[in-house]
Specification:
Shape: globular
Largest sheet: 28 strands, mixed
Helix content: 10-25%
Radius of gyration: 31 Å
Structural class: alpha/beta
Number of helices: 14
Bound molecules: 2-acetamido-2-deoxy-beta-D-glucopyranose
Strand content: 15-25%
Mean pLDDT: 76
Low-confidence stretches: 16-32, 556-563, 584-593, 610-622, 675-714, 832-877, 882-902
Length: 902
C-alpha cells in the first residue's frame, strides 16, 4: 500500500511541481503581495457562509481580515491578487466526521474566475448534485472532488475545462454516475483521471474515449461496475504509467480480446485485484518489465504463484492474496521487493522458511510483509530482528506459537505490528518499549501472559492504537503514570487492569474507542472520566464491579460527537439514571444509539424526560436501543417513552416495574415499520466513524441469548418480562408490524390476547407465559407465518388451539398450564368439538394448504430478511467497498477487501 501511495504521491508532486514552477515563472516578475481582490473576498465569505466547519478550519476567513490571500487554504497570484488556488481538502479524512466541511457550495465560487487549482476532497456536500458551473472555471488545471459526497450524474460541462490536467471524482459514498463520458474527449491535457466508485455501467465503451486522451499517465477506474473492455485497434495512451482496474467484473476476456493491456510497456503500477479472473495468470504480464507495483489479489486464479513473476525484477509491491501454492524460491531474485502481501494464500510454510526467501538478497530491504491467514506455523525468532526496514508486519490469523522474541525491539522502523489471533504465549518482552515508531500494536486473541508495565511503553511515543484483548495479561502501572503516547483506540477486554480505575486514561485526550470491559475494575468511576465521556464514540466498561452513582456532571451526559455506543452493563452502579438520561439540551447532533445499562443496581423511576431525545432520533440516527434490563427500577413506564419513535429495542426486563402498558405504544414507529431504509440507517450510522458499535449487542430472544452482531438494524424487540405489569395487553400493540420479538412473560397481565395479533406479521418470537391471560388463542395467530418460538404457558387460556402448521409445530410445553386442547396438546373432547370445531376444521382445509405454503416462505422470508442487509454487502462489491470505505480504518469485517484503503 505504501508503495502505491508513493507512486501516486510522486506523480502528484510532479504535477504540482510543474504547476508551481509555472506560477513562479509567470508571476514572480512583479511586485508581490498586492493583496486580495474585493469581489473574490466577498465570494469566499459567501462560500464560508454555506458551510458548517466544526473543526474551525476556516477560522482565518474573517470579514474583519481584509487580505483573503492570507487566509488558510487560499493562494493568490502575488502580482494581481487573484485567487489561484483553493485548498479545502480535508486534512484528516480518516478522522470521523470531525474535520469535514459540511453543507452546500455557494455559486459565488463561480466568481473566482482565475482559479487554477480547486481541492474540495473529503468534505461532506451531502449528496448535492455536482455543480455544473464548475465547467465555466476554464482556467482550472487541477480539480479534486474525491470523497466530497456529491451525487447524481457528473455534469458534462466538466468537459469544457480544456486545460484540466488532474481530475479526481472518486470515492463518493453517494451514487455518482455518468450518462456517457464522451465529454472527457475535450480534456486533451488530462494526465490524471480517477473515477473510482463512479458507476460507469452506462458508459461501458468509455475506454474508447479515454483512449483518445494522449497525455494520460494515471487512470483509476476502481469499483466502477465495468464488465468488459472493448478491444482497441491501437493504444493511444501508451504513456500510461498507472492503471487501476480493481473491483470490477473483468474476467479472462480482458486478456484475450484486449491484449493491448500487455502493450502498455511503460506501466509502473497495475492493479487488477478483486475482479473475476480465473485459471492461469497470463504470462503476458511478464512483458511489463517496468512494473513496480502489481496487485493480483482477490481473483479466482487457480494457479500457484508463478515463478516467472521473478522476472519482474523492478517489483517493489506484490500482492497475491488468495492465490495458491507456496512462495517460489526464485523470488530470492526480487531484490527490490519492499512490500509483499500473500495473505490468505495457504502457504503452509514455516515462518522461518518464508523469511529466508526474503532475506536472501542480504539487504533485508522489506518494508511491508503481510502474511495473514497463510496457515503459517512456527515461532517468531530473533531472525526477525534483522529486518530493520520493516514498518508493517501482519501475521494475523496464523498458527504461530511460542513467545515473542526479545529481538522484536530491534525492528526499529516498525509502525504496524499485527499478531492478532495466533497462539503466541509467554510474557511480552521489555524490548517492545524501544519501538519508537510504533503506531499500531495488536496482540489480541493469543495466549500471552505476564505483566505489562511502564517499561513496555517507555519509548512508544507514537502509539495510537493498542489492542491486547483476549490474553491473560496483567496491566500493572503506577497510578501516577503519564504514558508517552496519545492513544485513539484501546482495547483491553479481559485483561487484568483493576482493581483501581486506570487513572492514566486521564492523559489520553484523543481516545475515542475504549474497551476495558471485563478487566476486574472494582472502583468508582472518577469524576474526571465522567466529564471526558463526550470524547468517546465507543465506550465499553461492562462486566466489571464498578460502583457508585452517576454524578450530575459539569458537562451533561452523554455527549458524543457522533452516534456511538455506551455500555455500562453488568456492573454495580446504583442510584438514578436521571443524570444520564435527562441532562440534555440542544444536543441534536449528539446521541448514543446504543445505550446499555443492564445488570446494575439502578433504582428509582424511569425518568420521564424522554422528551429530550426525540429530535435526535428523528434525525435518522436511530438504530436505537434502550436496555435497562436487570435493575431495580420501579414505577410505571412513563408515557413520554412513546416519543422515542426511532426505538428498535426496548428492554426493561427483570425490574420491578408496574402499572399498565401505555396505549401510545404504537408510536414506536421504527418497530411499526416493517420496511424502513435499513441500509441507509446502517450507512449513516457507520459514517459516524466506528464499526465496533455493531459488536456485542446481546438481547434475549427466541428463548435464549442471541448475539445480534452486525444485524442490529434488522431487529425490533420489546422485552418487558419479569416485572409487575398489569392490565390488558393493549390492542395498539398489534400495530407494531415490524416487531420481531415480543416478551411479556412473568407479569400480571389479564384479559385476552388481542384478537388482531395476526397483524404482527414479522413476529418470530412471542412469549406471554406466566400471566393471567384468559379467553381463546386468537384465530389470527395462525397467520403468524414467521413464528418459530411461542410460549403461552401458564395462563388461563381455554378452547382449541387454532390450526396452522406454525402453531401445531410448536412443542406442547408452549401451551402447558392452560385449559387448551388440540394439537400439539391432546384432542379436544368429542362432545364440545363435534359441531362447531369440526365445521371449523373443514372450513380450514384450504387455509391449511395456504399455511403450508406460508411455512415454506417463512424459511425463505427469514433468509431474505437477513440478506436484505448483508446481501448487498457481499454480492455488490462496489457497494461493499463503499461501506467498508467508511468503516473506521478499513477493518476486515463484513468480508471487506482489507488493505484496499486509498
Ligand atoms: C517559487 O518562487 C519562490 C520564491 O520566489 C522560491 O522560493 C521557490 O523555490 C519557487 N518554486 C519553484 C517550484 O520554483
Ligand atoms: C507569494 O508571496 C508569499 C509571501 O510573500 C510567498 O510565500 C509565496 O511563495 C508567493 N507565491 C508565489 C506563487 O510566488
Ligand atoms: C511479450 O513479448 C514477446 C517478445 O517481445 C512477444 O513475442 C510476445 O507476444 C509478448 N506477449 C504479449 C502477450 O504481448
Ligand atoms: C483465527 O484464525 C483462524 C485461522 O488460523 C481462523 O479460522 C479463525 O476464524 C480466526 N479467528 C478469529 C476470531 O478471527
Ligand atoms: C528511548 O529513546 C531514547 C531517544 O531516542 C533513547 O536514548 C533511549 O535509549 C530509548 N530507551 C529505550 C528503553 O529504548
Ligand atoms: C505463562 O504461560 C506459560 C506457558 O503457557 C507458563 O509456563 C507460565 O508459568 C505462565 N506465566 C505466568 C506468569 O502465568
Ligand atoms: C407520538 O409521536 C408523535 C411524533 O411522531 C408525537 O407528536 C406524539 O406526541 C407522540 N405521542 C405520544 C403519546 O407521545
Ligand atoms: C380462569 O378463567 C375462568 C373463566 O374463563 C375463571 O372462572 C377463573 O376464575 C379464571 N382463573 C384465574 C386464576 O384467573
Amino acid at each position: 500500500m505504501k508503495s502505491t501511495m508513493v507512486v501516486f504521491v510522486a506523480l502528484l508532486f510532479l504535477e504540482l511541481f510543474t504547476l508551481v514552477t509555472m506560477i513562479n515563472i509567470s508571476f514572480c516578475i512583479g511586485n508581490p503581495n498586492v493583496g486580495c481582490v474585493d469581489s473574490e473576498r466577498q465570494a469566499l465569505l459567501k462560500l464560508k457562509q454555506d458551510l458548517s466547519d466544526p473543526s474551525n478550519r476556516l477560522a482565518s476567513w474573517n470579514i474583519g481580515d481584509g487580505d483573503c490571500c492570507a487566509w488558510d487554504g487560499v493562494v493568490c497570484n502575488n502580482f494581481t491578487g487573484h485567487v489561484l488556488q483553493l485548498n479545502l481538502g480535508n486534512p484528516n479524512p480518516n478522522y470521523g466526521t470531525g474535520s469535514k466541511l459540511v453543507g452546500k457550495i455557494n455559486p459565488s465560487l463561480f466568481d473566482l474566475k482565475h482559479l487554477i487549482h480547486l481541492d474540495l476532497s473529503d468534505n461532506d456536500f451531502q449528496g448535492i448534485q455536482t455543480p455544473s458551473y464548475l465547467g465555466s472555471l476554464k482556467n482550472l488545471r487541477y480539480l479534486n472532488l474525491s470523497g466530497a459526497e456529491f451525487a447524481g450524474v457528473i455534469p458534462h460541462q466538466l468537459g469544457n475545462i480544456s486545460n484540466l490536467q488532474y481530475l479526481d471524482l472518486s470515492k463518493s459514498y453517494y451514487e455518482l454516475q455518468v450518462e456517457s463520458i464522451s465529454w472527457l474527449s475535450g480534456l486533451s491535457f488530462l494526465e490524471h483521471l480517477d473515477l473510482s466508485l463512479v458507476d460507469l455501467t452506462k458508459s461501458s465503451d468509455g475506454l474508447v474515449t479515454i483512449n483518445s486522451l494522449p497525455s494520460l499517465k494515471v487512470l483509476k477506474l476502481s469499483y466502477c461496475e465495468l464488465h468488459h473492455f472493448p478491444s482497441l485497434p491501437s493504444t493511444n495512451f501508451s504513456s500510461l504509467k498507472a492503471l487501476d482496474l480493481s473491483g470490477n467484473h473483468f474476467n479472462n476476456s480482458l486478456f484475450q480480446y484486449s491484449s493491448w493491456v500487455f502493450g502498455l510497456r511503460n506501466l509502473v503500477f497495475f492493479d487488477l485485484s478483486d475482479n473475476e479472473f480465473h485459471g492461469k495468470i497470463p504470462s503476458g504480464l511478464g512483458n511489463l518489465t517496468f512494473l513496480r507495483h502489481l496487485d493480483l489479489s482477490s481473483n479466482e486464479f487457480n494457479s500457484a504463484i508463478p515463478g516467472w513473476l521473478s522476472k519482474l525484477n523492478d517489483l517493489e509491491f506484490l500482492s497475491l492474496r488468495e492465490l495458491g501454492g507456496q512462495i517460489p524460491t526464485s523470488f530470492v531474485r526480487l531484490c527490490k521487493l519492499t512490500s509483499i502481501d500473500v495473505s490468505y494464500v495457504k502457504l503452509g510454510q514455516d515462518l522461518s522458511q518464508v523469511l529466508d526467501i526474503f532475506s536472501s538478497c542480504g539487504a533485508y530491504a522489506l518494508e511491508s510483509l503481510v502474511l495473514s491467514g497463510c496457515h503459517i506455523c512456527g515461532h517468531l525468532t530473533n531472525q526477525l530482528g534483522q529486518f530493520k526496514s520493516l514498518h508493517t508486519l501482519e501475521l494475523r490469523d496464523n498458527s504461530l506459537s511460542g513467545p515473542l522474541p526479545p529481538a522484536l525491539g530491534e525492528l526499529s522502523s516498525m509502525k504496524n505490528l499485527d499478531l492478532f489471533n495466533n497462539t503466541l504465549d509467554g510474557a511480552i518482552p521489555m524490548s517492545l518499549g524501544q519501538l519508537s515508531h510504533l503506531e499500531l500494536l495488536d496482540l489480541s486473541n493469543n495466549r500471552l501472559n505476564g505483566t505489562l508495565s511502564e517499561i513496555h511503553f517507555v519509548n512508544l511515543t507514537k502509539l495510537t492504537s493498542f489492542s491486547a484483548f483476549g490474553n491473560s495479561l496483567i496491566f500493572k502501572v503506577n497510578q501516577s503514570w503519564v504514558p508517552p503516547f496519545q492513544l485513539e483506540k484501546l482495547r483491553l477486554r479481559s485483561c487484568h487492569l483493576g482493581p483501581q480505575f486506570p487513572s492514566w486514561l486521564r492523559s489520553q485526550k484523543h481516545l475515542f474507542i475504549l474497551d476495558i470491559s471485563n478487566t476486574r475494575i472494582s472502583d468508582t468511576i472518577p469524576r474526571w472520566f465522567w466529564n471526558s465521556i463526550s470524547q468517546y464514540v465507543y465506550l465499553n466498561l461492562s462486566t466489571n464491579q464498578i460502583y457508585g452513582e452517576i454524578p450530575n456532571c459539569d458537562r451533561p451526559l452523554p455527549l458524543v460527537p457522533s452516534p456511538g455506543l455506551l455500555d455500562l452493563s453488568n456492573n454495580a452502579l446504583s442510584g438514578s439514571i436521571f443524570h444520564l438520561i435527562c441532562k440534555r439540551e440542544n444536543e441534536a447532533d449528539n446521541i448514543y444509539v446504543y445505550l446499555k445499562l443492564s445488570k446494575n443496581y439502578f433504582s428509582g423511576d424511569i425518568p420521564d424526560c424522554w422528551m429530550n431525545w426525540p429530535n435526535l432520533l428523528v434525525l435518522n440516527l436511530g438504530l436505537s436501543i434502550l436496555n435497562l434490563r436487570s435493575n431495580k427500577l420501579h414505577g410505571s413506564l412513563p408515557i413520554q417513552l412513546c416519543r422515542l419513535n426511532s426505538l428498535q429495542i426496548l428492554d426493561v426486563a427483570h425490574n420491578s416495574l408496574s402499572g399498565i402498558i401505555p396505549r401510545c405504544i404504537n408510536n414506536f414507529t421504527a418497530m411499526a415499520a416493517a420496511n424502513s431504509s435499513d441500509q441507509d440507517n446502517a450507512i449513516s450510522y457507520i459514517r459516524g466513524g466506528v464499526s465496533d458499535v455493531f459488536e456485542d449487542a446481546s438481547v434475549v430472544t427466541k428463548g435464549f441469548m442471541v448475539e445480534y452482531n452486525t444485524i442490529l438494524n434488522l431487529v425490533r424487540i420489546m422485552d418487558i418480562s419479569n416485572n409487575n405489569f398489569s392490565g390488558e395487553v393493549p390492542k395498539e400493540l398489534t400495530n407494531l408490524m415490524g416487531l420481531q420479538s415480543l416478551n411479556f412473560s412473568h407479569n400480571l397481565f389479564t384479559g385476552k390476547i388481542p384478537e388482531n395479533i395476526g397483524n404482527m406479521r414479522s413476529i418470530e418470537s412471542l412469549d406471554f407465559s406466566m400471566n393471567q391471560l384468559s379467553g381463546k388463542v386468537p384465530q389470527s395467530m395462525s397467520s403468524l407465518s414467521f413464528l418459530n418460538h411461542l410460549n403461552l404457558s401458564y395462563n388461563n387460556l381455554t378452547g382449541k388451539i387454532p390450526s396452522s402448521t406454525q402453531l401445531q409445530s410448536m412443542d406442547a410445553s408452549s401451551f402447558a398450564g392452560n385449559n387448551l386442547c388440540g394439537a400439539p396438546l391432546p384432542n379436544c373432547p368429542e362432545k364440545n368439538a363435534l359441531v362447531p370445531e369440526d365445521r371449523n376444521e373443514n372450513g380450514n382445509e384450504d387455509e391449511d394448504e395456504v399455511d403450508w405454503l406460508l411455512y415454506v416462505s417463512m424459511a425463505l422470508g427469514f433468509v431474505l430478511g437477513f440478506w436484505c442487509f448483508m446481501g448487498p454487502l457481499l454480492i455488490n462489491r462496489r457497494w461493499r467497498y463503499k461501506y467498508c470505505y467508511f468503516l473506521d480504518g478499513c477493518v476486515d469485517r463484513f468480508g471487506c477487501p482489507v488493505r484496499k484503503c486509498y
